[in-house]
Amino acid sequence: MTDILLGEFEQIVLLAILRLGENAYGVTIREEIQEKTGRDPSPGALYTTLARMEEKGLVRSRLGEPTADRGGRAKRFVKLTAKGTDALVAAQRAYQNLLRGISLPGLAHG
Amino acid sequence: MDKGKIAEWFISLVMEREQAAAIVGDLLEAGASKSVGWFWSNVLRTWAMSVWRDVRSHPGFVLGLAMLGILVNAAGCFVASLAMALLERTIWAGLSGWEASLWLFAERLLVVSVGAFAAGRWIARFSLGKEVAVCLAMVLVAPPILNVLDVLMWGFLTLAGGPVAVAPLTFVWWNNGWMLFSLVPYLMGAMLARRRQGTGVTGSGPGVA
Predict the structure, then answer these.
(1) How many CB atoms lie within 10 A of CB B117?
(2) How far apart are CA A103 and CA B170, in angstroms?
(3) What CA–CA distances, in Å, run from B64 to A74, B151, B163, B207?
(4) DSSP assignment letter at A21
(5) Which of A32, A38, A89, B161 has its CB 3.0 to 4.6 Å from that of A16, i.e. a possible disulfide?
(6) What's the rounded Cα separation, in Å, for the pair B134 and A13?
(7) For strand A73-80 and strand A59-67, is the pairing parallel, antiparallel, or unpaired?
(8) How far does A99 lie from chain B, in Å, by closest CA?
């Protein structure tokens, strides 16, 4: 159990990182969020959120190899930490608890 | 100089250099099919949001350091003023009219620059990666303090029947103008100190891992 409360956008970013696996970096995370949620987060908002979550120990990052299409700049790959996974599970469990016993149109759940 | 390098330098003012490089790489990659305006607007937004994050996540640290920076600035200005006073004995005596006004302006410019530059360098020692946030806080916090002090002094002198050279609004404008100008030497001092200390945000201060 973790005592870190995640904001909605933080949960979205963490879920996108989980979905992307080893290929999670700024560009792909934004694309994944756009594709799956229809939102178009600004790069600034995403980087600020990533920096904040790294500061909290929810994610960790590593630099990849520099590539020519990025002007010789490396990608910064992001991965969830155990703490981040715990916080995400706790947040999703809270949503599920709230949803249990009610029915929303177009959404199937138990 | 290509836009990537300029953007990287600009963003590295508010975060670690390698992090800034990765962000600019992302913006170049994502912006390959987009306009130059998209690229620069996102560079500016990323920069501004990073500064705002620094202030929001550590308001006490940023404001506290800004207040101490103002004191260092005042001390720097005082030392510079003393040096200028010594020079005045030799130069000021021979000047009159517009030459005297010009000298006074140059003297003020130099004193404010030296004080702010010293404060910027001092700030960089304790706020690596957050220099811009602290410098902006100083520019925002100092004028109201100076204005209140000056208005109080003006009121005191008026009540005491002493000589009052200018109206309160005049020196309020001067305070605000000079403090806004101070942002340049603040940042120059801070950035120069950071460059000497190395590339990144590996120093002390909250949020600096």
Answers:
(1) 23
(2) 66
(3) 36, 24, 36, 15
(4) G
(5) A32
(6) 29
(7) antiparallel
(8) 32
The DSSP secondary-structure symbol of A107 reads: B
Q: H/E element holding B106?
A: helix B97-126
Instruction: Give residue B168's identity as a one-letter amino acid code.
Output: P
- Residue in A104, A12, A44 with CA at minimum distance from that of residue B47: A44
Q: What is the pTM of this model?
A: 0.77
Helix (H, G, I), strand (E, B) or coil at B203: coil
Tokens for B13? Answer: 């003012």
Per DSSP, the three-state class of A33 is helix
Cβ of A26 and B26 within 8 Å?
yes
Are the beta carbons of B119 and B138 closer than 8 angstroms? yes
pLDDT digit string (tens) for chain B, length 209 residues: 688 999 998 998 888 888 999 999 999 999 888 899 999 999 999 999 999 998 888 899 899 999 998 888 888 888 888 887 777 766 666 667 777 778 778 888 888 888 889 888 888 888 767 888 888 888 888 888 888 888 888 888 788 776 666 666 677 777 788 888 888 888 888 888 877 765 443 333 443 33
Rounded to the nearest angstrom, the minimum Cα separation between A89 and chain B is 25
> A19 CB contacts (<8 Å, ≥6 apart)?
A32, A36
